[in-house]
Amino acid sequence: MRMKLTSLALLCALFAGAAPLAQAERLKDLASIAGVRQNQLSGYGIVVGLDGTGDQTSQTPFTVQSIQAMLAQKGVNLPPGTQLQLKNVAAVMVTTALPAFAQPGQAIDITVSSIGNAKSLRGGTLLMTPLHGADGQVYAMAQGNVLVGGVGAQSGGAQVQVNHLSVGKISSGATVERAVASNLGADNQIRLELNQTDFSTAARVVEAINDQFGAGIATALDGRVIRVRTPSSSDQRVAFIGQLESIDINRAKDSAKVVMNARTGSVVMNQAVMLDNCAISHGNLTVTVGAESNVSQPAPGSRGQTVVTQSNSVDVKKDPGRVLMIKGGASLGEVVKAMNAIGTTPQDLLAILQALKAAGSLRAELEII
């Protein structure tokens, strides 16, 4: 495991040290349109027809109450004091996401999850269940046969089931009953919302849109929201948005960031991470990052100029003392590569990166997960 984690950190370091290739991205991959979103729906329902794998009614009284209420609605009145012994029924929660612009009659997929102690939902049928939105209104009705996938293996007296049997899906199991009102294109404008706040990227998006559709079409409100003027008619607006989403944007470089997993020892960084001069001692390992100037003197009488350059090569020295020398300006990828070359453990690497950040030598945001 330690070798795999070390190899992963080294691989990420090699990619981080490589020069990134400039590549344009589509605007639809960088931003979303305000108001064009999914809406979460949920509902409480009952699955029937199970093969003895339902809720144990002695421990799930809500299942019995649900059955009694359903039978009462169907005109079946149970005698007072009746104790129902149900083995083929399970109480479930039904969840789904209502797509943007979904219209009544459209079918959507749903997920059915047991909330009791049912052993399995396989072979069950979900009874008609209303699905509510955050406002309490019913937006869809769900019903259908629950599909629970999985692989079973049996050897002698042992049996292994590879799946979560208390969760199933119903393809096209809900029908939309109410559409969500949309104000797309209100006042002949839309708002683009970048996935990440970045003033440089927002400025490039505005420039690209105005270059293609004309000056004044796009205006940046802040580092995340961009206002775009659209045609007044709906068909022209749809065509305009389609062209808008296909514009190629040269996204600005992300800020330098290092992400560390303290449990596994993995380290992930981007290409913008660099180091300043520093020296760190950790256990029997010494890490030194220093500047080295290379001076080139012209020959006498050649009227040349003296040239001073900085060397960013990595020099690794093993025992004694496990001394690691790294030239100033080296990337963090070179540091990780060099430390792995002398057998540094992932835990040592995490401690060293934390010390680099605390000393101000690591010019990057450090996130520990």
Question: Outline of this structure?
Answer:
The chain is an alpha+beta fold and 369 residues long.
SS strand fraction: 25-35%
What's the number of extended β-strand segments?
25
Helix and strand composition category:
alpha+beta
Return the average pLDDT rounded to an integer. Answer: 80
Inertia-based shape: flat
The level of helicity is 10-25%
Q: Measure the end-to-end span.
A: 19 Å
Helix count, DSSP H or I runs of 4 or more residues: 7
Main location: other
Function: Assembles around the rod to form the L-ring and probably protects the motor/basal body from shearing forces during rotation.
Keywords: Bacterial flagellum, Cell projection, Cilium, Flagellum, Signal
GO molecular function, one term: structural molecule activity
What do these coordinates show?
Assembles around the rod to form the L-ring and probably protects the motor/basal body from shearing forces during rotation. It holds the Pfam family FlgI. It contains seven helices and 25 strands. With 369 residues, the chain is of the alpha+beta class. It folds into three domains: 2-20 and 255-299 and 306-368, no CATH class; 25-35 and 183-249, Gyrase A, domain 2; 39-176, no CATH class.
